[in-house]
Amino acid sequence: MTELAEEKSSTNVLESALQQLDGVATLIDVHPDVLAKLRKPKRTLTVSVPTRMDDGRLEVFTGIRVQHNMDRGPCKGGIRFHPSVSLDEVTALAMWMTWKCAVVNIPYGGAKGGVICEPLDMSDRELENLTRRFVSELVEIIGPEQDIPAPDVNTNERIMGWLMDTYSMQKGYSVPAVVTGKPIAIGGSLGRAKATGRGIVFVAREALQTQGMPMKGARVVVQGFGKVGGSFAELIEEMGAKVIAVADVTGGMINENGLPIAEMSAYAKKNRFIEGFDGGDKISNEELLSLECDLLVPAALENVLTAENANDINARVIVEGANGPTTPEADRILIDRGIYLVPDILANAGGVTVSYFEWCQGLQMLFWSEEEVNQRLEDIMVRAYHEVHKLGCDLKTDMRNAAMALAVNRVGEAIMARGIYP
Question: Number of helices (H) and strands (E), helices first, in the chain?
Fold first, then answer.
């Protein structure tokens, strides 16, 4: 088991998601019918994924796809390959995707999927076999107009390419808009690879300004150095911040003078992890979370900020890069301590925003420049941040409740406008 996995709280993520929903329902006037509908996913599919392994044996994995809501448009959400995948986890993540899409006001509902496996122990051929069989099981419920998957933990653009090809072979023609986060050569969007990290940077910049703190020279700590955390660290360093510590599943590294992020990123891309990089002193993930800093970005897995460690956090601002990194108990402790926290459903929505751009480009067969993608992303993320901040001030509540209130109001409006069939 990895260090990050060991540090995850036993708190059930679905319980956390439902607590957040119930909490905001008491803050704003949520119609009982809306609340009842939003507490349950629209559709849940669990499938067997028989996969031929390199040694000739057949291994049967379990795959899950949860579609939470479709009232504002087709479902959108990633697919992860990880040993910890569970139905409750995927259901919670699908619900958070619904809120995320509503916060940035793009016409999607939330979905999520996953396969219970350890991809780090699998060859490329085994991963391709697994992916193609899983997609074959999902063909009836995914598609450009009903559910559009994307990369997530331990999945990447290559796997999304296999997904698109498998779906297209089933349909008999190319369907680039069935998935986002795929290679540029088959309809991927410029700017997608770093979109989530870039979106977090835009939100972090606005959050620091709100708190009267300059970006230049800000001391930043990042937990997670993969697609999200690594991109974020690179981009925020370019904006003048000083990244003093990072961590991945192998452990953490600190350098009070600032880590050489560009060199570290190159090393991690070559060696998969930061372990062995000579640029700072080793620390544990637990030690990393308690470092004194201006900005802490948990960008790994869920439930890493818990009631057990919330009092040890020494960050002035927390911007959630991962999905659900803070338990409800920790949330209350951090807010009571005066730490300004920007929630995941706002902070890491850059990925789904550029996925939306990719989907639009795929449907129109009209592609944008990277500059246009990045500018549109910045416009949406900055607008969403200030909408949430204003609502928080109006409601006299924290940023998580404000983001939830904005999202639930928007989804609730759609539910009431459409009515309940029959």
Answer: 15, 12
- Which is the catalytic residue, given 76, 100, 112, 227? 112
CA 122 to chain centre: 24
Domains, the chain, ranges and CATH?
Answer: 39-177 (3.40.50.10860), 195-347 (3.40.50.720)
Residue 201 one-letter amino acid: V
Whole-number Å distance between alpha carbons of 401 and 422? 33
Residue type, 369: S
**Mean confidence (pLDDT) of the chain:** 95
Please tell me the number of Cα atoms within 13 Å of 217 on its side-chain side.
Answer: 2
Helix (H, G, I), strand (E, B), or coil: what is residue 321?
Answer: coil
pLDDT (tens digit, 9 = 90+) per residue, 324-367? 899 999 999 999 999 999 999 999 999 999 999 999 999 999 99
Measuring CA to CA, how many Å separate 22 from each of 25, 97, 293, 401?
5, 17, 32, 11
Q: Say if residues 149 and 163 touch (Cβ distance below 8 Å).
A: yes
- 300-402-310 Cα angle (round to 5): 45
Helix (H) or strand (E) holding 132: helix 124-138
Whether 112 is catalytic is yes
* pLDDT digits 0-9 by tens, 218-246: 999 999 999 899 999 999 999 999 999 99
Q: Give the pTM.
A: 0.92
Could you tell me the end-to-end alpha-carbon distance of the chain, in angstroms, rounded to an integer?
A: 48
State yes or no: cis peptide before 32, omega within 30 of 0. no
Edge-to-edge order in the sheet of strand 340-342? 281-283, 251-254, 242-248, 219-223, 292-298, 314-319, 340-342
